[in-house]
Design a protein that fits this description.
RNA-binding; alpha+beta; 35% helix; 877 residues
Length: 877
RNA sequence: GCGGACGUGGCGGAAUGGUAUACGCAGCAGACUUAAAAUCUGCGGCCCACAAGGCAUGAGGGUUCGAUUCCCUCCGUCCGCACCA
């Protein structure tokens, strides 16, 4: 067999078929072995898989196959995040029904995934657009509604007047809709919200328990939740200056210590007091209208100037009835954070300082940094937000910031006005409730009915699912559900009178917030989950996906699991015990003279290093080799997984994805390295063949003694085994692959030794058999097809996919004598070989006889000799 | 602006307080071949003709017997958040 080339194209489908026929990756829920749940983020069925999928699913498959070999009952399912806008875009642009488009894509991508040789349990496949899935989602919506986890409220949205649809912030570009180009308006719509903010503190606290999540993701979630501790303070207003004799304004501040530096108050343009004042002041009304015209798009907010308008209202300082502050409406105050009103202390807040400098209100520093003279400490253009002592602050003078905050809070909490304390400590979060209403067709219908008499009525559970109608038209903008002739019309479940269905559908993030739970038992029809299954399988032991989901998907899933817990559909709070975020697949770009890009397949590369040149295959025209970018359609730097699998085989593609780059970092796809991976596939095939030849003469019984060469091989094999196991556990795939290559090199050396000697000694033949039986299982998780073929060639009748992980022989990892590096003043100068358990004194004596040491010491005694057991010796001269 | 990560040969990278440059890619030289491909062997941080030696992990400083690893300052690259009071 050793002189035949390994033919991946013939071999891979053969093993895939066999795995399939024998159903060896179908997982049973009642298997008594310990469980291991490995999950990769399921794909959106966009049409074809891309290299990012190949990388993601290869990593998951390595873990799944390894854990299976380690004796775990492994759950490794796959499904489709199948609702979403691209299906509707296809319907509009190509007149294909979203359902047809989606299911065709699923079929194509499933075939592609199968060609990768992934050890997936396809019997548990889920598509979120299937009524058998979203039925349960609707059921949970109703349960959550009953449990008070969902509410309906007004919210501002980006409205595209041409497409007649709501746009996400990222779909608004320079204030215009990304598709229509129409100027986006702010509209108030009544929408459904999941009350995720009720769980802000719990979601924050529990991050500490997620010790197998990347620190980066945990930090991003902490920042996103954005907890702050502050004080609500009720300022009195001069009723003579207010529109309707209002007497009070409540503000939120995290810096109550700076109250004596206050120079103004500011209201959000959406604040009720601003609205009231605008009714009596046309100029103010115009100012507010102008503020509201600006969208929520980030670019606009960034560039917008800080603008204010003096309402004429005057507020009274809480510590001085004779001290009044002007009340402005300002465009930078958000209505939905705190109370929508603030007091401004310009000396210690840059934004407030910019504001007073524009309107000439001045500033007073109240915190003086250590070592500064308060008399000369002035603020002009840069606010001071550091530590220091209170100054110019009456009873607070001399206190630290923390003490001053506490003193202000205590004093104002103690005062009451109208039976309520003047101030109250409050914790605020940046995290907002999760608006899930989408004015779209291709999503999960929200199961409620609007009745003129009964109001919002939930669809009775027995009437679920509320299915999407299939006879819809995309010939006009807007939501097809809204204008469907009959779907919307329904009798009120309570009073029986004609009523209307909710035509909004759910955000697709809802679909992906519980699919991992459904995978634990996707067959049960009368409930979203089977409690014994969901509780025994969850949490997911290893979740793998892109960093782009670090916040939204992962935070929503954490919330949703809590909600399922409350509603009785799951018994835990944290769905993902281990998380890994893999890097992207990137590729260099090729720019043609006309500025457009060429694909890697259209380009031929010549030369190396600085001499590398790229020319178009078709015309010979030179193209510029550009920067390395994320593979994308727009840069045309994509490589099609199908092409790679066709040319090199899935194992080569899988090996490449794990090589060289650490898995959390981006990997650069290059033709040279794919060939390198392919060469290694061939080399392993040859090596296993050669090893098999050598091993033919091996005795059945393990020899009592091993010669030096055989022992060296055995040590290499067991050393590699121990290290590879550890590296897979830590997901250090690139290091793991280097270990396998090193072991293969050691095996090649041994084969070389045998062929130089003419024949194998019995001990070497036995050791070679052992080495081959270790090598194949080691690379099986990465290259399963090649491993099956090698395993069969070695004469095994079992499948490697079902074989146990080899046992390490610990004694082989311990050396009798060890060679320690010898440093002189921290630089390596020599080696010394000593018995493993040699005493310090003996090692020291041995070291002092070395020529290099004698020379360095020039006859003098060393100042110190440091012996680190099993590691190193350092002589200080 | 706030927060975080990273910086090692020509390139991807290894080593998380103990032999810096494992493993691979590219390169060079050689073997096999009529030739090529494939394969195999050898060489690859810099300075110095060699050796000895010295210098090298973005730059500078510190801690340590010993620092790529820990600490401080700076430079560069990337990422997240951002009128959040």
């Amino acid at each position: 067999m050793s002189n035949e080339r390994y033919n991946a194209r013939e071999t891979e489908p053969r093993w895939q078929k066999l795995w399939d026929e024998r159903g060896i990756f179908a997982t049973k829920n009642d298997d008594p072995r310990p469980k291991y749940y490995v999950l990769e983020m399921f794909p959106y069925p966009s049409g074809r898989i891309h290299m990012g999928h190949v990388r993601n699913y290869t990593m998951g498959d390595v873990v799944a196959r390894y854990k299976r070999a380690m004796g775990f009952n492994v759950l490794h399912p796959m499904g489709w995040d199948a609702f979403g806008m691209p299906a509707e875009n296809a319907a509009i642009e190509r007149k294909v029904h979203p359902k047809t488009w989606t299911y065709e894509n699923i079929a194509t991508m499933k075939k592609q995934l199968k060609s990768m040789g992934l050890s997936l349990d396809w019997a548990r496949e889920i598509a979120t657009c299937d009524p058998s899935y979203y039925k349960h989602q609707q059921r949970m919506f109703l349960d959550f509604l009953k449990a008070g986890l969902i509410e309906r409220k007004q919210s501002k949205v980006n409205w595209d007047p041409v497409d007649q649809t709501v746009l996400a912030n990222e779909q608004v570009i320079d204030g215009r809709g990304w598709r229509s180009g129409a100027e986006v308006e702010q509209r108030e719509l009544t929408q459904w919200f999941f009350r995720i903010s009720d769980y802000a503190q719990d979601l924050l606290d529990s991050i500490d328990t997620l010790d197998r999540w990347p620190d980066k993701v945990r930090l991003m979630q902490r920042n996103w939740i954005g907890r702050s501790e502050g004080l609500l303070v009720r300022f009195m207003l001069d009723p003579k200056t207010t529109p309707n004799s209002e007497s009070e304004l409540e503000i939120y501040t995290t810096r109550p210590d700076t109250l004596f530096g206050a120079k103004f108050m500011a209201l959000s343009p959406d604040h009720p007091l601003a609205a009231a004042a605008a009714k009596k002041n046309q100029k103010l009304a115009a100012f507010i209208a102008e503020c509201k015209k600006h969208g929520t798009a980030q670019e606009i907010i960034d560039k917008a100037e800080k603008l204010g308008f003096d309402t004429g209202i005057r507020a009274v300082h809480p510590f001085d009835p004779n001290w009044t502050l002007p009340v402005y409406v300002a465009n930078f105050i958000l209505m939905d954070y705190g109370t929508g009103a603030i007091f401004g202390c310009p000396a210690h807040d840059q934004r407030d300082l910019d504001f007073v400098n524009k309107y000439g209100l001045g500033n007073v520093p109240v915190v003086c940094p250590e070592g500064q003279d308060p008399k000369t400490f002035v603020i002009t253009d840069t606010a001071y937000d550091g530590d220091g002592r209170m100054v110019n602050s009456r009873f607070l003078d001399g206190m630290t910031i923390a003490d001053a905050k506490d003193a202000v809070a205590k004093r104002l909490e103690g005062e009451t006005r109208g039976n309520r304390p003047v101030a109250q400590r409050q914790v605020n979060f940046r995290l907002r409730d999760w608006g899930i209403s989408r004015q779209r067709y291709w999503g999960c219908p929200i199961p409620v009915i609007h009745c003129d008499d009964c109001g919002v009525v939930p669809v009775p559970v027995k009437n679920l699912p509320v299915t999407l109608p299939e006879d819809i038209e995309f010939d006009r903008p807007g939501n097809p559900l809204d204008r469907h002739p009959t779907w919307k019309n329904v009798a009120c479940p309570q009073c029986g009178k004609p009523a209307r269905r909710e035509t909004d559908t759910m955000d697709t993030f809802v679909d992906s917030s519980w699919y991992f739970a459904r995978f634990t038992n996707p067959w049960i029809e009368n409930a979203p989950t089977e409690r014994k299954d969901v509780d025994s399988w969850l949490p997911v032991d290893q979740y793998i996906g892109g960093i782009e989901h670090a916040i939204l998907h992962l935070l929503y899933s954490r919330f949703f699991t809590r909600a399922m817990n409350v509603a009785g559909h799951a018994g835990l709070k944290e769905p993902f015990a281990g998380l890994f975020t893999q890097g992207m697949v990137v590729h260099e770009t090729y720019r043609k003279t006309d500025g457009t890009f060429a694909t890697p397949a259209e380009v031929k590369i010549d030369g190396a290093g600085d001499q590398r040149r790229a020319t178009l295959l078709a015309t010979g025209e030179e193209v510029e080799i550009g920067s390395i970018e994320k593979m994308s359609k727009s840069k045309r730097n994509t490589v099609d997984p199908d092409d790679i699998i066709e040319t090199y085989g899935a194992d080569t593609a899988r090996w490449f994805m794990l090589s060289d780059s650490p898995p959390e970092r981006d990997v650069i796809w290059t033709e040279e390295r794919v060939q390198g991976a392919s060469r290694f596939v061939q080399r392993l095939w040859r090596l296993v063949g050669e090893a098999h030849e050598v091993a033919k003469s091996a005795p059945k019984e393990r020899p009592a003694e091993f010669g030096a060469a055989a022992l060296k091989l055995r040590k290499a094999a067991h050393g590699a085994l121990a290290r590879v196991s550890g590296d897979i556990e830590k997901l250090h795939f690139n290091v793991c692959l280097a270990q396998i290559r090193e072991f293969a090199n050691a095996m090649s050396d041994a084969v070389e030794t045998v062929s130089a000697a003419g024949q194998a000694t019995p001990d070497m033949a036995w050791a070679m058999r052992e080495a081959a039986d270790i090598l194949v299982p080691l690379f099986h998780p990465m290259m399963p097809h090649l491993a099956e073929e090698c395993w069969a060639a070695l004469g095994h009748k079992t499948l490697i996919a079902q074989a146990p992980w080899p046992q390490v022989e610990g004694a082989l990892l311990v050396e009798d004598t060890i060679t320690l590096p010898v440093q002189i003043n921290g630089k390596k100068r020599a080696d010394v070989t000593v018995p493993r358990d040699a005493a310090h004194a003996d090692i020291e004596a041995a070291v002092l006889t070395l020529d290099a040491v004698k020379k360095a010491l020039e006859g003098k005694a060393p100042k110190k000799v440091i012996v680190v057991p099993q590691r190193i010796v350092n002589v200080v001269a």
